[in-house]
Structure formats: structure tokens, C-alpha cells
């Protein structure tokens, strides 16, 4: 029964992508997140410049690209952790530009971090409880009367225990999160994000720094998110993982989306090969070019000296 | 050497007015720094706002006692908001810089010549504590057990003071064991993680700043009332640094840490000071004179704090396991 459901979700996601063109900004049948002309500049450097991008609901979408492609900056913008200089994006049709990070999370778009942010001096259970939304006891005055929030707290604890069981952290329940291993922290962070009850889970390099033995288990958990009807968007460097779990891949380079496509064919796309191997940019300089650059630099220096004089 | 005198003075200091005032100041700091991770270096400012709110309303404007109390509390809230709005969105170290400056601004404003008619300049204010002592249920005389004793005025200050300390501790215990306190502790660990879980970090930090500031203002009330006078230079940054010492000595992020820290801090301070004075007077120590004892005492406080941070950074109540986590 369960296995059937698995194949249906996966199949449904794949069917949605069937026959879509691999141009950047391809419209999807049922997008949960629609991004338009998002730009982020740091001084003279344009870190992100995404013309148009749609993320399909109920699928696992990977965001890949060489180092410095602007993936994490883009992630930060979408989740309200960084501001956008221009552009707009909607989540479930609601405008998100300028919305602070905590409101983005409340709307059901929850992220994790590349450098795991376990709350070290809180126990694993307290980490989990923190994720629950609309807690009555999070108001200062209601906090003073435990009777008001105790019932809700018990419900939250029950839900947290189920998740900890599923993520194999139940034994660590009362340990400080800071005492967990790197992989366990990743698991905890993911489980904690689920406590929010998200529709879209954004994972920033979920496999970074994870012991290979845990990788399979983490992959399984990511796939489970889709089976439960959530949408996943993740940044990753590990191509094996991308091929294994993603239904669709978006490739960024130098701040822009350069290609999209299914995971098994995207890596042979010439634009992607260029981006990764730098076909045009990294070719060694010829002797003439070196000479030319040298002359340019000297001319510049001379003009500067003249200006000062 | 009169050991009896030395120990009597030390124990009196450990439960006396200074201990109460610093306990309240440090409970406030504990809320800021211990639980929320806010580096408030301007706790002296909150005490000053409390003391001057009370004193000014009564001595300058002739208002009733409770109006003075309300003004002091409201003043602390406003001071916290003024501090928090520009700085709480920034990194923690900026808050430290701004708070230390803000506390100095408060002190310089109340001691300024231009506002002398309102705040009394460097002489400060007096004649505002009559209503407070009129409520004193202790009849005139000495109260105490054996050689340890206080007069009726001090008894009244201490009664009110320790009740306030107890109330503050109960409040801190309740909120820090609630979901509200959990959010604060999580902010101390990592703000961005808390944001990503849908909590309004700015609002929580502001609430913590106000709460701790108001507790600090209570310390300010007692400071002013116990002396029946208030001078601007009582509220120098020294108060803040002593309060930090008290907090770290007792153990940050522990309900009773600041209270026990304050008692032990003052007990030790006076024990060493009286001990040295006695030793000098009785020619046990001959290479210093009595006037130098005070300065040497403060040097020893510094040495003590350094040793504490090296050998027991978690304080008396702290958990070494927790401190070790930071090293990772």
C-alpha cells in the first residue's frame, strides 16, 4: 500500500515535468513558488540575477551550480534572510518581497542552513518544540500561567516524539543538541523544520559534512517529504544525490539560471558543461593577450601618475 | 585582629543593601545576557533611570511616592525601547557599545548644570524617601541575631528588597520554563535558526530588554531609597561591571545564580577589605596604609574574576557540560 503511494507521488511529479522544455524559466503546470526578475547586488558585483523561475508543487527540485553561482544568496532572498534589490516572488500566489524571514516561515516556507544551526545549549526535545507554531505560551503574560499552555505543550511534545522516532533521534531526546554529531544535527534541523508544518521545505546543502553512512538515511527522509505532499527545493553539490532524488534540476551560474531539466539529461546540456568547466573563460591566455594586458596596465598607471602630477 | 568584627561585617554585607541592589541588577542582566544573549553593558543606566524617575517625581515635582515608582518603571521601559529599536536588529557587539554609551548619557544628563533644577546636578536629589520610611512597620531600634544586626530603616529596605528579589526570581523561573523562555534561549544560541522557525526575534529581544531593564530599575529604587539620596556618579559603569561579576560568579542562565552571586560577592569583598584594614591597624601588614586598602581590594576583585573565568567559567550553579558545548 505504502509502496504504491510512493510510486504515485514520484510518478505524478515526473508526469508534471514530462516534455517540458529545458529553457531557463520554463512555466510549470502547478507552481508553488514563482520568481520574477530577482536581483541582488553587492557593490559592483551582481550576485543574483534571475529572470524567471517556477518551482513545481509536490516535487523535489534541485538547485545546482558551480561555487559562487549565487545559490545560497538566492535562497536567502527567497526566505527573507537577505533583501532583494529588485524583483518579486510569490509563494502560493502571495507576494513575498520585503516580507521578514519569520513571516515567510509562518506562511509555510521553511528553510534549513548550509552550516547547521542546532541550538547547542537546548536539548533535542526543546529544539523540536521550538518549531511548533502559534504556541500560547510564547506570549510573556500567558507564559506566567502554565495552565494556559501546558495542554498545548503536551500535544507538541507528542508530535515531536513521533518525528524524533522517525528521524532516529528519540534516544537523544534529552541530550544537548550541541553534543550531536554533524549528521545528527542535519537530521535534527530537518525534523525541527517539519515541526513548523511547512508546505515548501528549502534545504541548503543537506548533505554537506554528513558521514556517508547517514547519507542514505537523509536521502530517504528527503524523499519522504515529497511522499507526504510537501514540496522540496534544495541546493546541493553532490551530483549523485541530485540524480538520485530530484525530479527536476535548476542550474545557476554567475547569478543567473542558465538551464533547467530532468536530472538524467541536464548534466550533458552544453550550457551546464560550460558553466562547470568554464569552456570560454578558463582557457589559458595566449602570448599576445598577455602582452596586451601588460600594456593596458602600464598605460593606466602612467595616466594615474600624470593626474597626480 | 578582631575576627569577630571582620566576619560580622562580611555577613552583614552578604545580606545587606548592596547585595540586594546587585542581586536585582544582576537578575536583570541575567535576563539580558544569560538567557537571551544580549550584551547589555548599560545596566547602570537602568538603575539610574529607576532611581531618578522616583527621586525626581517626588523631590522636584512633589508627586506622591507611587507616582515616582510608576515613573521609574515606565522610564525603564522607555529607555529599553529607545536602546532596542536602533540596535536589536544589529549584531550583539553593537548593542554592547550602544548600551554602555547610553548609560553614560543618562548619568551625564542627570548631572548636567543645565538641568540642575530638575535633577540636582552633581549633588543629586534627596528628601524623596519620607513616604517610603513612613510605611516602615519596624519600630525604631536595632534588629539582629547576635552581633549581626541592622537598624530599623535598613531592616525595612532589606525586607522590601529581598521580597522583590524573591518575586523577580519567581517571575524569571516561570517565564524561563515556558515556551516564551525557550524562544529567548534559542535566540541566544542562534537568531537565524529561530527566525527560520517563524518567531519574531526582534520582538522577543525587545521584551527581554524591557523585562531585564525593569528588574534593574527596581534595584535603582532600592539604591536611592536605602541612601535617602541619589547622586549621578553612583551610576557609573562600575555598577554594570560588578553586576556582570556577580552574574558570572553565580552562574549565568540560572534563576538563583545572580542572587547567590551577589551575596557571595559582597561577603568576600567586605571580608577581604575589613580583614586588610584590621591587619594594617594591628600592624600585621606593614607595607601599606589603611587608605590603600580600598584600591587593593578592587585589584583583588579583578584577579578574582580572572581566576573565576579560568577555573570555573560556569559559575557556582552552572553546568560545565553546557560551557564545554561552546568550544565545538
Automatic annotation (TrEMBL), chain A:
One Gene Ontology CC term in the entry: plasma membrane
Cited PROSITE patterns: ABC_TRANSPORTER_1, ABC_TRANSPORTER_2
One Pfam family named in its UniProt record: BCA_ABC_TP_C
Residue ranges annotated for the ABC transporter domain, each copy included: 33-279
Region (Disordered): 284-309
Biased composition (Acidic residues): 288-309
GO molecular function ontology, one term from the record: ATP hydrolysis activity
Residues that span the membrane, as ranges: none
Keywords: ATP-binding, Nucleotide-binding, Transport
Protein name: ABC transporter ATP-binding protein
Organism: Microbispora hainanensis
From TrEMBL, chain B:
Domain of life: Bacteria
Keyword terms, alphabetized: Cell membrane, Membrane, Transmembrane, Transmembrane helix
One of the Pfam families matching this protein, by short name: BPD_transp_2
PANTHER family: HIGH-AFFINITY BRANCHED-CHAIN AMINO ACID TRANSPORT PROTEIN BRAE, HIGH-AFFINITY BRANCHED-CHAIN AMINO ACID TRANSPORT SYSTEM PERMEASE
Topology within the bilayer: Multi-pass membrane protein
A single Gene Ontology CC term: plasma membrane
Entry's transmembrane regions: 6-31, 38-59, 65-85, 92-110, 155-176, 208-229, 241-272, 284-311
GO MF terms held by the record: branched-chain amino acid transmembrane transporter activity
Localization, UniProt: Cell membrane
Name the record gives this protein: Branched-chain amino acid ABC transporter permease
Chief location: membrane
Entries under InterPro entries matching the protein: ABC_transp_permease, LivM-like
